[in-house]
Automatic annotation (TrEMBL):
Pfam families per UniProt: DUF1097
Name this polypeptide is given: DUF1097 domain-containing protein
Stretches that traverse the bilayer: 25-46, 58-84, 90-123, 135-153
Keywords, in A-Z order: Membrane, Transmembrane, Transmembrane helix
UniProt cross-references to InterPro entries, sorted A to Z: DUF1097
Length: 173
């Protein structure tokens, strides 16, 4: 089958399964409602080159970004609180700068992936009223799930693709 159709089929079927996990078996856990983070990580897998490298980059960078985001929220409500309405903007600016600087480390070199993790931690904090510390582990777990779905969807699409056709990774880019 053509690569585009193979990718559409694998992503479509696995998207049903991923969403079902979050509204079904995971709904009574700390991962409830975080399917969107899984989808961000899934896309990040392809954005980061696919394969093992794409999944590794996704997990490392998004986890780093979530950790930096967690610290930014803690600083905004703690040490920077005296800055009033400038506390959050300054904490976010420092976090963004740290993400850029940390890209000098090979495993953290994909800045957008770290930004996705930084942004992802805000959801459980703002929408579910979790503390930054309570939000970190569920975000990281959702990142890992999403990266795994990215990897599996790519492998499945490649298995379904007619020989001599472009790979699922090339089609997704």
């Amino acid at each position: 089958m053509p690569a585009l159709f193979a990718l559409a089929l694998s992503v479509g079927v696995l998207a049903v399964i991923d969403t079902w996990l979050y509204v079904g078996p995971l709904a009574a856990t700390s991962l409830a409602g975080l399917v969107w983070i899984s989808f961000i990580a899934w896309g990040c897998h392809f954005h980061s080159g696919g394969g093992v490298k794409g999944s590794t980059t996704t997990v490392a960078c998004m986890t780093w970004g979530a950790l930096v985001g967690m610290v930014a929220v803690i600083l905004a409500g703690g040490a920077f609180a005296g800055l009033g309405t400038m506390a959050a903007p300054i904490a976010v600016g420092l976090g963004a700068a740290l993400i850029c600087l940390s890209s000098a480390v090979g495993l953290l070199s994909t800045i957008p992936a770290s930004v996705y993790g930084f942004a992802s931690i805000a959801g459980p904090i703002l929408l579910q009223e979790r503390t930054p510390q309570e939000a970190l582990l569920p975000v990281v777990c959702s990142v890992i799930i999403g990266a795994a779905f990215g990897y599996v969807s790519e492998m499945l699409a490649n298995a379904l693709t007619k020989k001599n056709a472009p790979s699922a990774e090339a089609t997704a880019v």
